[in-house]
Amino acid sequence: MVARGWARLRDRLGGLARQALRALRVARSERELDEEHAFHIDMETERLVRAGVSPREARRRALVAFGGVERFQQQVREGRWTWVWEEGWRDARHALRGLARRPLLAVSAVGTMGVAIGAATTFFSGVESVLLRPLPVPAPDRLVGVSILTESGGRSGVVSLPDYLDYRDGAAAVVDLAAHHLSDVTLSNEGGALASLGLEVSSNYFGVLDLVPATGRFFQPGEAERLDGPREVVLSHEVWRSRFAEDPGVVGRPLYVNGKELTIVGVAPEGFHGTMLGARPAVFLPLGQYGRLQGRDIGDRTGTSWLQLFGRLGGGASPEQATDALDATARGLGAAYAYGREPVGARVEPFSPLPARQRAVAAQALLILLSAAGVLLLIAAINVSGMLLVRASQREREIAMRRALGAGRSRLVGQLLVEGLVLGILAGASGAGVALLGTRLLERVRPPGLPGFRLDLPVDGAVLAFVVVSAFLVSLLFGLLPASHALRPDPGPVVRHGAARRPATRGRSVLVATQVALTLVLLVSTMLLLRTLRAALGTDHGFDSRGLVLAELNLRLNGYDREGGEAFYRALLESLRASPEVASAALSTSIPLGEGWDQTRASVPGLEAPEASGWVVGWSAVSEGYFETLGFAFRGGSEPDPTSMPPRIVVNDALARLFWPDEAPVGRGFRFDGREAEVSGVVPTGKYRSLSEEPTLFAWVPLAFAPSPSLYVHVRPRTDGPAAVGAIRRSVASLDPHVPLIRVTTLETAMGQSLFFQRVAAAFIGAFASVALLLSATGIFGLLAYTVEQSRREIGIRIAVGASGSGVVRTVVRAAVTPVLIGLLAGLGGALASARVLGSLLYGVPATDPTSFTAAGLLLLTVGLVAAWTPARRATRVDPTLALRAE
Amino acid sequence: MSSRSSAEALRGTLDLLILKTLSLEPMHGWGITQRIRDLSEGVLDVNQGSLYPALQRLEGKGLVTSDWTTTENNRRARYYRLTVSGQAELAPEEESWRRHVEGVSLVLKAV
Predict the structure, then answer these.
(1) What region, left, alpha or beta, does residue A192 occupy, with left being phi > 0 and alpha being psi -120 to 50 degrees?
(2) What is the pTM for the complete model shown?
(3) Pick the CATH number of B3-109 from 3.40.50.1820, 3.40.640.10, 1.10.1160.10, 1.10.10.10
(4) Which helix (H) or strand (E) covers residue A701, if one does?
(5) Residue A50: its chain B contacts at CB < 8 A?
(6) B39-53 pLDDT tens trace
(7) For residue range A207-244, what is the model confidence (pLDDT) as tens digits?
(8) Among all residues of chain B, which has the CA nearest to that of A75?
(9) Does A67 contact B4 at a Cβ distance shorter than 8 Å?
(10) In a designed cystine with A847, which of A359, A835, A863, B50 is the match (CB 3.0 to 4.6 A)?
């Protein structure tokens, strides 16, 4: 039945298209019509004159016989193109009047489609901004991103400054290689201080991007990489406008970055926001100044890897040539220096303003959400189709009457299409409105670990095109469904008997089943994500994270040197421990599941490691009191004395079992990061980098082993968290009022950041699933209400011959349960497939989690039964005498 | 027979008359009306108002084509002529018309 309907529809559409083409081909201009008409009248007049009629009378008779030029034009105009517009406008007004008469249908159809189009548009906009939009520079397709492959099969996005220079020079023949790095900075001049972002760049950075300064100049060739190079700064256009009112005289003036004086030499062009997605650096700084401004040693080749590489392919050079050149350099460097993770090659890819790893994560999350929005769009379209089918069957009589009165089929189809177009335009417009709100909402989603991230999601050409295409498809749906329904071959019976006897419910049952199937996909996805979040809360990290307060400090931004920093932190711990609100306090360089974790190599005599340099071990440097404050449960040994030599290290269970499977590990010696160390204690294995990781080797070293100006402060409150936060603020301010607390939160919240994408996905997909559930419920309700309405007579007879009320309810409910069950079965396959797509976001829950599937199925079934209840009750109240008489 | 079908039959008749006339020679609109009147010895007087829509419909179907030329009296007129598919259409149309007429007259002959 559906197939035949489609075939009929296709024929109709083909007919319409042919008619439109023909109309174009035989279109006549007004002037041509006049000329043909005049010729005909003249000839007829001449004939009559030849027959003896007076010229005046002959002309009159000729005109009468022809029937007047107006009528002639009217009749011929049907073949003309403008006719389409005139009729179309009339149909549009007619459609608007019709919609105004049924405001509920119009509002729910337009509203449903508007929300769905808006949701899909929002995520399309996200995909476009994050994954598709090229940098606003000339020939962005010639830009490539470079990452370095390491011997263990890993991949590193960053290199040290000396390495960058070698890579640049080694590949100079085929690719012009630039480097950049994003950091937090404090800007100050006469106008006051401003916390902001700075992008450290190589001297060829702007040249590689092929940009021209808005004023002044960029860095001189070879100068920016020198540690003792000129102390210069290039302003972003935004800062030039907001802080300097676009004064061209800023060139040559001083600007203080992290308290150090630099000279402004130029301004970047308007609309250029750097080369890191979502970050809008206020200033561009020479690479070589990074050490001085941030208090870091950047001359060390194998120590600090911080620069990301990208470049522009030379004329005619291929990415493969660039890869070959960089491979050679990488192998040379790997052979010459001891990195720990030796570089063995390079990977050259099209440049993306997102680093490869984040890009992959963002792409997956965005595409999952876009697909979910697409499923919602499909559900909405199906829901609205159901509404329109009801309306079409209500209008059967009207349409049949008009056809009997001589309205042509194409005329009717045209009218229904115009009605669809009106609905589609309204739906598109409301969808654009929803998308405007949705993109604002999506812009506020800030991924963790990207400081100062701000992504604009403008509703631009591509996004508008998406709305227009959606609206057009919706228009076709709105128009063609009723059209295919209205154009049944013979209008006769409908005119005589009213609506068709055979209730057109089978098509709608299919729609309801499809809707249920798609809703199940969204519900199961939501359940899986929610259960992932729940499972994550129950993860055993080997310590007690409840109630712990966390603050983040970075003294680098205040110009502290190493000794000053160590003194500051020592004093801070003393001050905190003296506070009555604090039970215990400690420091660490990283937090579990946070950013900034580090790894190095460790080995033990007699155990062969996969690589000569040893096993990869994650580590964190911690102050004394760390294990007590966090409440680690020691499996053996104890917290080390931080000053003992060789350094005493706490290791996790995974490392202890690997290195000393048969012996007690405490007191054993091993090589850690190139030195001799001794095990002080063993703690249970937790999760360090991500919840889904395999058991990972981990070690905690005393802070003196790797002092850092950027530390986390952990406080276990004596009474409540807010009081402890107050104590931290007071202690920091009493030591140095200019040191800001970058972040104050709880350890649990900070660790929860690793579930960022799961949270975002659960929130959005959950919202979609709720809307889908509501739409399914209205779909089922609508189907049943319609079925009951159509079979009043049948129900009346059943009641008249003695059917019980419960029997009637059973019949009606069965009509609802059947499509729901079919839909659930069909949706199972889709849900399994979507669970596999979600796979890498899931943790602690299998993709085939029976609980999620059962719960989603039961929820849908319950909603279906509730939606069926009212129509079923109504059926039992059918008065048999009235129902029979009504026919 | 419903009213729509009879309207279609009438329209079909006019189309057949036009096709037949144009199969003799290309002609302008007025010439077609005259030719039909002459050939039917004055019985068939084509409604001039419905002639042009019919011509345009036939042109749309691709059975007839038209272009502006000069008459023997040196006036510009739109001349219609049969296309190849128009010629192909004519024979079966004539045949089906003939059978239609025979059928009708057989019925009328019945007592």
Answers:
(1) left
(2) 0.68
(3) 1.10.10.10
(4) strand A698-702
(5) none
(6) 888 778 777 767 887
(7) 999 999 999 999 999 899 998 889 999 999 999 998 88
(8) B53
(9) no
(10) A835
